[in-house]
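Exercise 7. Predict the joint structure of the components listed below.
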Amino acid sequence: SQQGEEDPQALSIQEGENATMNCSYKTSINNLQWYRQNSGRGLVHLILIRSNEREKHSGRLRVTLDTSKKSSSLLITASRAADTASYFCATDVNFGNEKLTFGTGTRLTIIP
Amino acid sequence: GAGVSQSPSNKVTEKGKDVELRCDPISGHTALYWYRQSLGQGLEFLIYFQGNSAPDKSGLPSDRFSAERTGGSVSTLTIQRTQQEDSAVYLCASSLGLAAFYEQFFGPGTRLTVL
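Solution:
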C-alpha cells in the first residue's frame, strides 16, 4: 500500500488562483518532500520539510506539515500555466533514511 | 553542470527478451536509486546503491530484475525474460546522501514497452 496518498487526484483551476493539494502518510517520518513532474522537465524536487518543522516557504510554494495528523499540504499561490504538472509527496517510512516512498500524485491543470 | 542521464530514452522489445537500461548519475553523488512508474501511477522503488555498501534490493519485483553499479558511478538495470507487465517508465535518481535528507535528482527516464 502507498505510504503517501495525495488528495485530490486531479485539480483544475484558473490561472492566477491558488492551488492546494494534500498528502497523508501512515508511519513516522524524518522528513517529507514534494516533487513535481511534467513532460518538459521530468521529476523535479520542490521542497523538503523536516518533521520538526510546521511550515516552510519557497517562492510561491508553501508547505505545511502536521505530524500528529500525518498529513502535509502544498499551496501554490498565483498559479501559472507552467505549474501544470503532477505533484507527488515522498516520505521515508518508519524513520528509514535510505529510501523514499512516493504517493500516486495530484494532477494539477492550470487553465489560461 | 550535467544532470542525471539515462539511456535509451525509449526501448521496445519483444516478450521474453532481455533488456539493459543505463543510468549516469551526477558526479560526486554517492546514492543512486532506480524507480518504476506505470502509466498514471506514482513511483515504485526498485533498488538503492549507497557508496560501497551492499545495495538495497528490497523493491525488485522478481528475480528477473537485477542491477549493478560499477565504480560507484554508472548503473545498469537488467530485466531478463521481459513480460508485458514490465512495461513502464524506469527512472533513475542520484543524491548526495540518504534519501530522507537529500534532494533526489532524477533522469529523464527510459520508457520500456514490451510487446
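Discussion. The mean pLDDT of chain A is 91.
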